[in-house]
Amino acid sequence: MSYEATRRQVLSSAIASTIAGAAPGAGHAHAAEESLSARFSRSGRFFGSAIQIEEVSREHDLRSAVLRECDSFTPEVALKWNSVERSPGSFDFTSMDALANFALANKKRLHGHTLLWHKSVPQWATSLLFEKGGWKLVHRYFQAIFSRYGHAIAQWDVVNEPIETGYRMDGLRGSVFLQAFGVDYIARALWEARGLAPEAKLLINEFGLEYDLRVEHDRRYLFLKLLERLRNAGAPLDGVGLQAHLDLAKGGLSADVLGRFLKDIADLGLFIVITELDVKEHEYILPVEQRDARVADETRRYLDIALAQPAVRGLTTWGLSDRHSWLQITKDDLARYPEAWKDGSNPGVNRGLPLDYSMNPKPMYRAIAESAGRRR
Ligand code: G3I
User: Fold this and answer.
1) 74 close to ligand 1 (CB < 6 Angstrom)
2) Is 17 in the pocket of ligand 1 (CB under 6 A)?
3) Which residues of 63-95 are buried (b: 16+ CB within 10 A; e: fewer)?
4) Which residue is closest in CA terms to ligand 1's atom 35?
5) CB of 313 closer than 8 Å to CB of 239
6) Is the C or the N end of the chain the one with fewer CB within 10 Å?
């Protein structure tokens, strides 16, 4: 069945429930071994994962795992500007069509990641954005995306990672968008999206907002100030995406600090989605059981704080299995243990996702499953 036909067929059910904020099929009791999405749906929340359709199509065990555990998918790469418009005006939706088809055919919601991100601007666009009428490029791209997926995707990261500390008083990242269009580019992008998708939920997505560190305190403060400015200006912002790339080298999570930050966002009338949870390990020298226990403990600490906030509507992990993750063990990580692995052994991969390389649930999976039971 073509993407168009599939889209029409499942359109009504997916959109209706997504806009209502409840996950499709919410409330269905499952057998003892409930999936993560079933557990989250009992508190009216969703559970999802970032996917690359090429990997899911190739690996049947991954395919079954994402279909079983998730009721929401985020395109890890396929929807990004430099993925869909590799040359001016010529759009290639092959990968995103396949992903959207897979989601709709399996009644899964989609999270639109991401429209404006300083790291996914097509090379050909960088200079053209500065020319007179440069915004036309943004409009054309938004129009191409919303006209094709506006009916299938109800929630969008319109702007990704707008905050950067240490440069401007307002904390705005000096991106090509800020330089070309000024400080109002964020509100302008939100209005552009609202015009093209009147029903959709529009979000700003950001990282580095979790830990009790000076720089992350500053990021939380500057991010909140940005949200307040947008709300005061009446910009069509519905929610916030918190990436939550946790890091075991970053020290403690403070329930007070993080809890208050989430409440401050909720008090602005914005809902919250945890959009890219994973855990960067630190002590790769430890036995796997201890490594997995630390990853699970950090996940549980974070989710116990985050899921206590009723404005949090759902959780997406940035991948489901350690087999596919942007988190790699770096040379620096290995250099910290010059004497280790001389016997030819190695630490394997970063173990920062719920399922191991063979799709078996890890302690992190259990931590997420147990946290899911938290009432909203
Ligand atoms: O698909 C091509 C492959 O054909 C080619 O052989 C290979 C080597 O160049 O590149 C592959 O494309 C890579 C793509 O991931 C698919 O794996 C791109 O080079 C690489 O840049 C891209 O990285 C993605 C990155 O965003 C940039 O888009 C990561 O997978 C993805 O995890 C990462 O995700 C970001 C979020 O969007 C925003 N928050 C942080 C997060 C992690 O950086």
Assistant:
1) no
2) no
3) bebbbebbbbbbbbbbbbbebbbeeeeeeebeb
4) 76
5) yes
6) N
Helices (H), the chain: 3-19, 36-41, 53-58, 60-69, 81-84, 94-105, 123-128, 135-149, 176-181, 185-196, 214-232, 255-266, 288-306, 331-335, 363-372
Residue with CA nearest ligand 1 atom 37: 76
- β-bridge pairing 201-206 and 239-242: parallel
Closest C-alpha to 173, from 109, 238, 127, 219: 219
Residue of 92, 173, 326, 330 to test ligand 1 pocket, by largest number of atoms within 8 Å of CB: 326
Q: Is 120 in the pocket of ligand 1 (CB under 6 A)?
A: yes
DSSP-assigned letters across all residues of 226-250? HHHHHHHTT----EEEE--EEETTS
Ligand 1 midpoint to CA 168 (Å):
28
Q: How many helices and strands, by DSSP H and E, does the chain display?
A: 15, 10
Give the number of the atom of ligand 1 that is nearest the alpha carbon of residue 113.
37
For 196-216, the pLDDT digits (tens) are: 999 999 999 999 999 999 999
Contact partners, residue 16, CB within 8 Å, separation at least 6: none
Whether residue 128 is predicted with pLDDT greater than 70 in this model: the reply is yes
Q: Is the CB of 95 under 6 A from ligand 1?
A: no
Indicate the DSSP class of residue 44.
T
Q: What is the rounded distance in angstroms from the CA atom of residue 110 to the CA atom of residue 71?
A: 9
How far is it, in rounded angstroms, from Cα 329 to Cα 349? 6
For ligand 1, is residue 143 a contact (CB within 6 Å)?
A: no
The per-residue pLDDT for range 272-307, each reduced to its tens digit, is: 999 999 999 999 999 999 999 999 999 999 999 999
Residue with token string 């950090």: 298
- The per-residue pLDDT for 2 is 55
Q: pTM value?
A: 0.92
Helix (H) or strand (E) holding 203: strand 201-206
Place of tokens 């974070």: 302
